[in-house]
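Note to self: keep these together.
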Amino acid sequence: MSPQEVMKLIEQAQPFIIAEMSANHNQSLEKALQIVNAAAKAGVNALKLQTYTPDTLTIDKADGEFFIHDSKSLWQGESLYNLYKKAYMPWEWHEPIFKRCREQGIVPFSTAFDATSVELLEALGVELYKIASFEIVDIPLIQKVARTGKPILLSTGMATVAEIHEAVCAIRETGNAHVVLLKCTSTYPSSPENSHLRTLPHMRQLFDCPVGISDHTLGIGVAVAAVALGAQVIEKHFTLSRSEGGVDAPFSLEPHEMQALVEETRRAWQALGRVHYGPSRAEEDSLVFRRSLYAVQDIAEGEEFTEKNVRSIRPGHGLAPKYLKILLGRRARRAIQRGEPITWEMF
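Structure:
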């Protein structure tokens, strides 16, 4: 597909759902291919990998700032190098995984972390790229990716408006206009109260591009809410089973949950509709069940209309209830039976 066709697919997917494999392959190509099959069965549009090695992300050093000390982190006690060694996907797996995705009718792509990963992905004919939140400040990498001309999903976790602006400008300066900004909270897992989804419409207006969410919260509620605020892309981590463990398993969706995400976000998208007042075509037959004025007692010719013999009830074949004041005190032109709708010619 051309970049324009990919962007059209993203904008018309309603919304575009991405299953993020990340490290949930647990160093098994067979499991990775099973994840592809399960993601396709759940109804996602795309599957995303991460393309790096421990040595392209950091150095092999297990102390100081190269060691995770944060007691709140899932990965506390690990060195960065060892964590990435556990999590990374062997590069020779990319080709069979891309092939399986295409066989299953979903779009394969990846997060690029350095120039060599871009070269690998280009050789595989990747159709779009992701830039991770932590790399949004790596302008040379962003421009390397942008020069491919492929659409870029730019994750914005932790980024200030100025940092997002700099990254978006870096992409557009290459002549690449195909950028989607993803609201993201860079904690694992993240909490709903830190998601700040009201940023989505503001970010879309500020940078004049589609927006979405890279969501690390548990469950699907945040993603559904994001669609209501204009998200066109939803990315969620995906695993066959959280019980199997793994670096990202605790905040990943299982297959039945991903299927629910697909279904509920599409319901939310359909519900957005357009600005509309008055009865829709689907509602026209229901107008009859509005209240209107009816004779609730037999009324003789010449008898006065009162609140005892006329009431506002369902269905809606009579005069609107607002005309009751005009009717009261007037006299019937003819005999009216109980259950007849009141009309203008009756008085």
